[in-house]
Specification:
The protein is mainly α and 189 residues long. The chain has one domain. The chain contains 6 helices and no strands. Helix 3 runs antiparallel to helix 4 and helix 3 runs antiparallel to helix 6.
């Protein structure tokens, strides 16, 4: 696998993390903007880098099991978090009593946005056992980190400017990503 292919793969895998970062960044308070964006970037980049390696190690042994349910897991996580964001944008308290980006939410989002990277790792193992998985995983992690950091900061600026309507939009984006993942795997799109 050449560097151009790895970059395209990394960018493609990073798109969900970018969209989620923008959506969650919209609910970050001004004083937590940088910390929140960095937290998302680290978590998303780390999970996106580790999942292809885990998929590579799993190889063909569990490929069928993972491919059968990965889209459902991603959909349920993203739709649940997105639905909660939409609900809170309409019915939530003006000042959040909990952090906009708790460790639990951060980990759920990191897993949801990196499940496809697990499948990519399995696919790479099956298609090309000699592919440089560690180099690919590192590049995927770096690209995802960069995209997520920019997305978190951009989302925070948009949230500051447009308020709670950005939280509803961010939630709708998460639900939409979950639906897209589900539809792609069920053969709809």
């Amino acid at each position: 696998m050449d560097i151009a292919t790895m970059l395209l793969l990394a960018a493609g895998l990073s798109m969900d993390a970018l969209a989620v970062s923008i959506g969650r960044g919209a609910v970050l308070l001004r004083q937590e903007r940088l910390r929140g964006a960095l937290s998302m970037a680290v978590a998303f980049g780390l999970f996106q880098a580790l999942m292809p390696v885990a998929g590579w190690l799993l190889g063909s042994a569990f490929a069928g099991l993972i491919e059968e349910v990965d889209h459902w897991i991603a959909f349920l996580l993203l739709a649940g978090i997105g639905g909660r964001m939409i609900y809170e944008s309409f019915f939530g308290e003006e000042e959040l009593e909990h952090p906009a980006l708790s460790v639990r939410v951060l980990l759920l989002l990191a897993v949801a946005t990196s499940i496809d990277a697990l499948a990519v790792g399995i696919g790479l193992r099956l298609a090309d056992p000699a592919a440089p998985i560690l180099a690919a995983a590192l590049l995927i992690g770096i690209v995802t980190f960069s995209f997520s950091l920019c997305g978190g900061l951009l989302g925070s600026r948009l949230g500051e400017r447009f308020g709670r309507s950005m939280e509803a939009l961010g939630g709708a984006v998460l639900v939409g990503i979950g639906l897209r993942i589900l539809a792609e795997h069920l053969g709809g799109w």
